[in-house]
Amino acid sequence: MKKTLISFLLVGFFTSYAQESKPKAADKPPVVKEENSPANLTFNPDSQVITNHTTTIKGQKVPYKATTGTMPVWDEDGKAIAGLFYTYYERSDVKDRDSRPLVISFNGGPGSASVWMEIAYTGPSLLNIDDEGYPVQPYGIKENPYSILDVADIVFVNPVNTAYSRPTSKEIPTTKFFGVNADIKYLADWINGFVTRSNRWASPKYLIGESYGTTRVSGLALQLQNNQWMYLNGVILVSPTDLGITRGVVSNAALKLPYFAATAWYHKMLSPDLQNKDLTAMLPEVEDFTINELLPALSKGGSLEEQKRKEIATKIAHYSGISEKVILQNNLDVPYDYFWKELLRDKGYTVGRLDSRYKGIDRKDSGESPDFNAELTSWLHSFTPAINMYVRNNLNYKTDFKYNMFGSVHPWDRSNDKTGENLRQAMAQNPYLHVMVQSGYYDGACDYFNSKYNLWQMDTSGKLSDRMSWKGYRSGHMMYLRKADLETANEDIRTFIKQSLPKAGEPAKY
């Protein structure tokens, strides 16, 4: 929310030795050569490989088909201007495909591949990590016993320049892809094409997005509805951004305190009266203080009485694990970066941004921010080998191109972000549409209390509240990396899907 994830430089375009399917256009799809590549690699935007597998989910054998490939993004003239890499998992023993839910999955960044949720959350395979999400060797892939594939088919989509997705030509303007609204527009077109090709128009449809992916799917809900005439049953927001919902200086300063408290509790930096409580028993007290005392106090700014200022600083220190002196030095508003550096400074560690359970070691204990994101480098350590092995060895999709964990998508046009309001409008217009938010208490990038604030501000009338839900987990941005939360969070999705499906013949009306 406060920062985008790091991006790596874009390398050559994609090629595949995969089995090709016929392109949509009459002419052959364009082929782009990367002249700087010694192998002169080429990109086919329309290709696929099909493999068949069996996994075990909740003790039940589940056979499935995996379709791995690229499918074009078409312009107004029917010309392929990009190819999106995707993996489509279909349970293969289903007799009634029309009533089977379809989940369309996006990660974030912007510029992040779908790798994270595909091999660590909802997909049928799971990377090899320990029970808290840390890398272990040897690297590898195993069955995911908690996957939602038992109740829904899933397609994992990679936007342009992520994974193996590429534009078809260097001459294609990046403005067609790289921006809040451009992203939503072309992905809605692509989803329409995918649903048509896959013959899934009859299926109940769900979008799930993580991090910036929540901005993406919130906008897609209305774009699909108004421009593709495709109506959804549910949207799942995993670690949501601010969704274009404006925060003022005061709310920005106040709303992060519950996250500070959760992180301090995890690292045992709170006083016994708080530390001896369970996390979810302690946090309501901090949330109440934040809304009812901190926000009004910060609203007064420099006019806040000195005695009241000291009282507020004392309470912030009590809840955050940061000294009162530091709180006052920062005018009651400690920046996130400074908190990550300060909380464990005396112990010689920093804490992670995306997941504050992770600790890092800086060159110097002094300073105002950590040298690096301890959690992200840990995740790349385990995910990068796993996805490269998985695509080639398990899905039989072979290429000499680089799988972009993070691709170059800059400059990204962030103007006119109204995605939270877009989602509200989609819900108001579609009585079938439900929303669930999933947040990790230790996520400092898209913190849990701001995700609650999103729901409050998105639906100020309260008329949609019966179709909105919020779930919290004892981990960070990728809450599913912790085994206990992987099981719980998938079960929450499974329950959400089942509860949001209307009864046969039930009309969509108020």
Helical run tally: 14
- Based on secondary structure, the structural category is alpha/beta
Point out poorly predicted stretches: 1-38
Give the ordered list of helices and strands: EEEEEEHEEEEHEHEHHHHHHHEEHHEHEH
What share of residues is helical?
25-40%
* Main sheet overview: 10 strands, mixed
Total count of strands: 16
Could you characterize the architecture of this molecule?
- Strands 3, 4, 5, 6, 9, 10, 11, 12, 15 and 16 form a ten-stranded mixed sheet that branches. A two-stranded antiparallel ribbon has the order 1-2. Strands 7-8 form a two-stranded antiparallel sheet.
- The chain is an alpha/beta fold and 510 residues long.
- A hairpin with a 7-residue loop joins strand 13 and strand 14.
- The longest helix has 21 residues, at 279-299.
- The protein has helices at 115-118, 180-197, 212-227, 249-254, 257-266, 272-275, 279-299, 306-320, 324-329, 336-342, 374-394, 419-429, 448-458, 483-500; strands at residues 32-33, 42-43, 47-57, 60-74, 80-91, 102-106, 125-127, 141-143, 153-157, 166-167, 205-210, 234-238, 350-351, 359-360, 434-440, 468-473.
- The model is unreliable at 1-38 (pLDDT under 50).
- The protein has a domain at 249-375.
- It is 33% helix and 17% strand.
- The chain has 14 helices and 16 strands.
